[in-house]
Amino acid sequence: MEKILRINMADLTTSEEAVKEEYKFLGGRSLTDQIIVDEVDPKCHALGPNNKFVIGVGMLTGTTAPCSGRLSAGAKSPLTGGIKESNAGGPGGIMLARMGIKAVVVEGKPEDDKFYIIRITPAGAEILEAPEEIIGKGTYDTAKVLIEKYPKSNVMAIGQAGEERCAASCISVTNNEGDPSRNFGRGGLGAVLGSKKVKAIVINNEGKRDGFLPIARPDEFKPVAKELSKMANEAGKGLRAYGTAVLVTPVNKVGGLPTKNWHTGQDENFEKITGQAIHALAEENGGQWGHACHPGCVIQCSNIVNDKDGNYITGSLEFETVALFGSNCLIDDIETIAWCDRMCDDFGVDTIDTGCVAGAAMDAGLIEWGDKEGLKNFVAEIGKKTPLGLLIASGVETFCKVYGQSRVPATKGQSIAAYDPRACKGTGVTYATSQMGGDHTFGNALPGRGKDVNPNLPDHQVGVIRMLQILSASIIDSTGTCLFVGPSVTKLPYITKMVNARYGIDMTEEDMIEFGKKVLTQEKEFNRAAGLLDVDMPEWFKIEKLAPFDLVFDVPEEDVANVQNFDVEMDTTRVW
Amino acid sequence: MEKILRINMADLTTSEEAVKEEYKFLGGRSLTDQIIVDEVDPKCHALGPNNKFVIGVGMLTGTTAPCSGRLSAGAKSPLTGGIKESNAGGPGGIMLARMGIKAVVVEGKPEDDKFYIIRITPAGAEILEAPEEIIGKGTYDTAKVLIEKYPKSNVMAIGQAGEERCAASCISVTNNEGDPSRNFGRGGLGAVLGSKKVKAIVINNEGKRDGFLPIARPDEFKPVAKELSKMANEAGKGLRAYGTAVLVTPVNKVGGLPTKNWHTGQDENFEKITGQAIHALAEENGGQWGHACHPGCVIQCSNIVNDKDGNYITGSLEFETVALFGSNCLIDDIETIAWCDRMCDDFGVDTIDTGCVAGAAMDAGLIEWGDKEGLKNFVAEIGKKTPLGLLIASGVETFCKVYGQSRVPATKGQSIAAYDPRACKGTGVTYATSQMGGDHTFGNALPGRGKDVNPNLPDHQVGVIRMLQILSASIIDSTGTCLFVGPSVTKLPYITKMVNARYGIDMTEEDMIEFGKKVLTQEKEFNRAAGLLDVDMPEWFKIEKLAPFDLVFDVPEEDVANVQNFDVEMDTTRVW
Questions:
Q1: What is the model's pLDDT at position B447?
Q2: Using CB atoms and an 8 Å cut-off, which of residues 64-93 of chain A contact chain B?
Q3: pTM (2 d.p.)
Q4: Which of A298, A422, A518, B533 could make an S-S bridge to A546, C-beta 3.0–4.6 Å?
């Protein structure tokens, strides 16, 4: 029997319950969403006692489906005020799946001011006082102490930012090597854990598979998983060699690379920060490429970045981090960018929001453009918990508010990712309609996405984006599958078949699409009740022309508004 | 002919236009609202080029109607994101009226980074480069320099906070003596002026009355004005002697005085900060009471507060300022509170939002409870423009976000005033439904307001509040009349008659009520389009009991939601 763990931080008790019938075929995002919708008042304060922090295991997690170990976390977001799901790599999802734990719900707030850790093993869940030496510390120190104490565990920890409940706090998650370089990055989930005084969640299935729901029709499952693995393996070659920063070149080419705080979309020095440059550096100084974020990943887009003396700086340096601390700050030095990433992981803040803050701070005159030491010192403020540090960790919308800037690169309170919506118009449609704030993974139209769709033009974007959002919500985020397997129509039959074989059910592909629509609709309804607008695209993207191609975001608002209005039919001929 | 001045900060030109037929019988809030609704996109960024700053002269301003010289200013608010009207005393309104200027519309943004001043005289409006010596300076220095240069002018200036476009920036307005102690206090209008690079507006009618619209039926006007003056004069005795801080005692009595960051509603030391105590201090050290905020004021609730050596500290020290820097911070020293008020006026920030920030900062451990020097140093940060200073000047909602606090004393982004909504439930209904954010003047149920209505109980509040909101919008804020004349049914005939006599029209009292409803509805529609919720009452006021009477805000939400739904009839038997 699969179960749900309930962790009550108000009275410091834990309990287990059987999975409700209605939750049986949910997983990942659809599961965290459903629990939040069922149990959290959309109007509660995200840091108050009535918000809940929910972990949801993907439908396929723990199986041999390729790249299916990503774990979802959700809550009402302190950053956007709406519903939030963020997923991370690391071995924790698979460990939970093997213990038969489908979800973990952390609720309430302790009366006292102590920090706690939650430990989950086959023996059950326990709430323990956090060891003195991790309080006020970064996630690297925290993970080290906790893994020494509880060997081979997966640690999900908050840093200084989460302890202080800053709105852009993340939860850093240890990878296979025990480095907290993976993250539930977006939406301020670290602040929610911090508000509940949970410094870390420590998970270890101790090698056991007790409670793991067996695959209902294994013979049907295996060949499909194998075939999809092969496809993902093949398609992932570029990512494996160069990481996600392989995107620097194509995004720069279409004029959508955030450069100098979004003043232009092309950086003349872009070649110094590409995935290829990161790869070359790794060859020189003993870094790694082709690194897996969780067991069972065949794409292996992650990396390890060392300094010039061969010492570890950070892991999983991603495209968004590279672009936002790089071109967006006129920084062309990978080591500097890697240090910013490391500090963000360590202090426990989202690199995307923080990179946007850094660009805005340069515009505000707090740091000189391209000043490497200045940038590192700026990010280091977070760890010192100075007023400036806490402000940085509150995300770019709040930073811009305090520094009186009207060029806010955020939707629904969360910074957009490293694709300028004026040049990457499909992604712009997603930013405008994402229920998660400015989140590219909600339905990302990478340059070239959609048959013959020009990212610089408004045409055909909304039809493509609608399907991307539906498939991201269903076959990707709800199954625990990595985005790089692809929220595409070509992958729909594979993943639908595996879900059917896993649970012994018979969904059609159309059912899966309807399921995705239901997830999106449910998120929209929660957010409406919380007071968020359906469509949010900052005015300045519509009126300030982006060099060098003089682009504005000009997808007609009435079309954008229909992306999640499933009563209206849309052109899907360009979807693949 | 009355006219509207248009100040284009994009191309630095000014122009005049005749008042449109539709604006002819509008004034004050109804006029600034209408211009904003007609000309400003609700979704524009408040600090972007498409917001407008609008001054609107009251319908009765410049006449002998008692206390009718208050001037309205409006814009889309950077604090709430919604429509904003804030009104201030000082002689500027009367000066504009006498020049036949009904409204001033400041639009656009200059290309360069220079600050400007706008000068308005009978010769017209001109845009001048701001003198070097006022840039980066507080409003006291600014007013002094500008009044020396342009004697006898009324100066409306922003301080450091407005220059930096902080969201809780105010515009400080000189009183009859030339001290900038009056304010367009709420909603961040200083930031809007700052975004347009306007350091100050300098007004002088040079004693002329050219352009003043004559009263259409003077014989009908005079006796009503005289009678209402007598009533206001009589009713204002307590305010004249003790100022608005006369409210400390009754608000404390009903358990609604914000004390220790809203943890309790009664302060054992309240007697040290009452209006009576301020009066006694003034008798000792040469301060003043019974001070008029503008010519023609018969109530004269303003004051001058000196230090123990008889030196001027501040003017117009109000109840809200006293309570929020006083009991809310466990400060019982009037001189300390007066210095906080002075600094807020000088740096150009709202005392209400800033007082709330100070309380929250004490809760966050940034200042010790009751630490007088600590509090003054904290407020002084604003003038230094440190990150902390800019954060303080961004208002309590943003401060709480950065410091991870869920007890946010704000609605729609703006701090509530010094009446705890759990004890003063009528005012709570106004906070929840005010289109201006947490603004008591939107419909203030002072303790005792409404026939036999107990402020601690939810009963009968919404009917009383609806009428207060309607009358505040119509006979008070649209006519330029001071709130202390009274948004009451007993004053409705007087003010309606004066408006009729002034314009030569024949509105009924019912027409005036319909007019108030129209103002409220228009504001609600703008705010809905901007993405604001109709009703906003923070969760914690509903779940955290207020000592000593253990009160929560428990007016039923469905009733609150109907305050501005004029299709639903409400109990108005308790209205007076």
A1: 64
A2: 78
A3: 0.97
A4: A422
Q: What is the pLDDT of residues B27-40, one digit of tens each?
A: 999 999 999 999 99
Collect all residues of chain B within an 8 Å Cβ-Cβ radius of residue A404. Answer: 47, 78, 164-167, 191, 194-195, 390
The nearest alpha carbon in chain B to A534 belongs to B531
B408 contacts in chain A (CB < 8 Å):
45
**Are B19 and B4 in contact, with CB atoms under 8 Å apart?**
yes
Class of domain A419-576: mainly alpha
Calculate the average pLDDT of chain A: 96
DSSP label of A37: H
- Alpha carbon distances (Å) from A9 to A154, B159, B403: 21, 46, 21
User: DSSP secondary structure string, B526-552?
Assistant: HHHHHT--S----HHHHHSPBBTTTB-
Chain A residues with beta carbon closer than 8 angstroms to that of B50 = 539, 543
How large a percentage of chain A has pLDDT more than 70? 100
What's the average model confidence in pLDDT over B514-528?
Answer: 98
- Write out chain B residues lying below 8 Å of A402, CB-based: 166-167, 387, 390-391, 394, 398, 402
pLDDT at B448: 62
Is A402 within 8 Å of B166 when comparing Cβ atoms?
yes
Query: For the domain with range A244-415, which CATH number is right: 3.40.1130.10, 2.60.120.280, 1.10.10.10, 1.10.569.10?
Result: 1.10.569.10
CB contact at 8 A, A457 and A556: no
Give how far A392 is from chain B: nearest CA, Å.
Answer: 9
The answer to whether residues B445 and B423 touch, using CB atoms and an 8 Å cutoff, is: no
Q: Are the Cβ atoms of B387 and A405 closer than 8 angstroms? A: no
Is any Cβ of chain B less than 8 angstroms from the Cβ of A544? no
Cite the residue boundaries of each domain of chain B with CATH code 1.10.599.10.
Answer: 416-576
Give me the residue from A78, A195, A388 closest to B387, CB to CB: A388
Return d(Cα A353, Cα B534) in angstroms, integer. Answer: 30
Which of B40, B46, B24 shows the shortest CA–CA distance to A538?
A: B46
Q: Which of A191, A387, A543 sits opposite B391 (nearest CB)?
A: A387
Going by pLDDT thresholds of 50, 70 and 90, the confidence category of residue A446 is confident
B-chain residues within 8 Å CB-CB of A403?
A: 164-165, 390
pLDDT (tens digit per residue) in A458-510: 999 999 999 999 999 999 999 999 999 999 999 999 999 999 999 999 999 99
The region that residue B64 occupies, defined by phi over 0 for left and psi between -120 and 50 for alpha, beta otherwise, is alpha
- A-facing residues of B in 176-195 (CB < 8 A) are 191, 194-195
CATH code 1.10.569.10 for B238-400: yes
What confidence score (pLDDT) does residue A447 get?
64
Domain with CATH 1.10.569.10 in chain A: 244-415
What is the model's pLDDT at position A452?
86
Sort residue A343 into left (φ over 0), alpha (ψ -120 to 50) or beta.
Answer: alpha
> Could you tell me where in chain A the CATH 3.60.9.10 domains are found?
3-203
Quick one: which of B363, B177, B13, A336 has its CA closest to A344?
A: A336
Write out chain B residues lying below 8 Å of A398, CB-based. Answer: 398, 401-402
**Confidence (pLDDT) at B446:** 79
* pLDDT single digits (tens) B95-115: 999 999 999 999 999 999 999
| Fold observed for domain B3-203 | Aldehyde Ferredoxin Oxidoreductase;  A, domain 1 (3.60.9)
User: Could you report the per-residue pLDDT of A349-381, keeping only the tens digit for each?
Assistant: 999 999 999 999 999 999 999 999 999 999 999
Q: Residue A569's CB: how many other CB atoms inside 10 A? A: 8
* Partner A, chain B 414-473, Cβ-Cβ below 8 Å: none
Residue at B376: amino acid letter: K
Taking CA–CA distances from A364, the nearest residue in chain B reads B164
Q: Is the pLDDT of residue A445 over 90?
A: no
pLDDT in tens, B347-383: 999 999 999 999 999 999 999 999 999 999 999 999 9
